[in-house]
User: What shape does this take?
Amino acid sequence: MLSKRIIPCLDVRAGKLTKGVKFVDNIDIGDPVESAKAYFEAGADEIVFYDITASHEQRGIFLDVVERVAEQIFIPFSVGGGINTLDDMRAVLLAGAEKVSVNSGAVKNPDIISEGAAAFGSQCVVLGMDVKRVEKTADIPSGFEVVIHGGRKPVGMDAIEWAKTGEALGAGEICLNSIDADGTKDGYDLELTRLVTKNVHIPVIASGGAGNPDHMADAFLEANASAALIASIVHYGEYSIKQIKEHIQGRGVKMRMVW
Amino acid sequence: MLAILKYKAGNQTSVRRALDHLGIECAITNDPETIEKSCGIIFPGVGAAGQAMDELQAEGLDEVLKAQIWAEKPLLGICVGCQILLDYSQENDTTALGIVPGECRMFNPSWTDEDNRPIRVPHMGWNQVRLLQDNALFKGIDKNAEFYFVHSYYPAPAEEFVLGVTTYGRDFCSIHGRTGLWAVQFHPEKSGRPGLQLLKNFDTFCKEAGNA
Assistant: This one.
């Protein structure tokens, strides 16, 4: 039986983590390679790297980080942030990432999904979506709108329709981030997650709002997410991956417990 | 030395990184002589079966591979490399290598999981392998260990070649072949410590076979 996945997300700027990761044993790690290694050892099922700046000059530094990560961790990891062209995708995949996440780049040019899937395989292409609750209108019938630029810019597209389009274009997975829930630690937006998992057949990663292990269990049990993205809850040492998994397993969810 | 078969549809680099990490000597190669000199072959694959077969044939590597297998050179096929050892794949209606009898089929999205929900395709993530018999590849690996899968098609070899199964909607064959000719649907190079152990076990088997 397939396990549900726990995925720490690391934000990288100019080759460094934007916030140091403090593990349960209180060692502060600012180096993305070292912290990825620590999460690999600690039982993370996958890791996501997000390049915050993605400026042209700093791209090289970031790719170097990706390469060093690939040499030291032997679980899948994906890379997102500033992916706008097929060449951007190729560069991170060649550097050793398993998957590449397209977000605003795909909103501006949806063909990048199909082109990426054709060139590298659907399994490599993750559609990252930032979504905000809005009033239901004829254009946004679900009341969930796609936004870009960190949630600042609405694009006038219904999130459910965009998820279905992304799947049809060849995305192998969706990483679904709720801008409203992000940073609240009140739990994932279960209604949004449920709506998307109901409307696509590819795996969906719930993102935004994780404050405790029950939130992740809820996303799996109540919203049928395949994976849960987490950040501060593990970065600041509140919980270890093992504690999280044990708790979720206790609620009857299949977790990978041997690593 | 292990030879990692070099052709366009392979994920050779991630396999090489894992072997480097383990200190196992290896070469990414499509040179028949180097392949012949190796003590074992790793046959990786990503993408679609049709494209992978085309690439192999274009370089004449299908014949090299067959000759080595008939000469009992140990081989480990991974993912698409596992699938195209069979006769046929539904993916792109592909005539495959025909080394192991059987075919590769697509997951049916109307199959349901333990909670009665339709399965998601691709089968992506960590899952267990239940061995049908003792297997040298799994020496020292916890029986509850999980491996990383990412695929939409699964191998369905003739029954006597099924070495282990995995459950996704229903049981499918996740490792097939015979001793010394192993094909795994999961990615050992991305499966954490258990996957690294499997690669190490393969290397050990190859060295012992070479010395025998």
The CA atoms of residues 9 and 48 of chain A lie 5 Å apart. Chain A touches chain B at residues 1-5, 40, 45, 70-72, 74-76, 94, 96, 98, 120-123, 172-173, 201-203, 224, 226-227, 256-259 (CB under 8 Å). Chain A has ten helices and 13 strands. The first helix of chain A runs from residue 32 to 42.
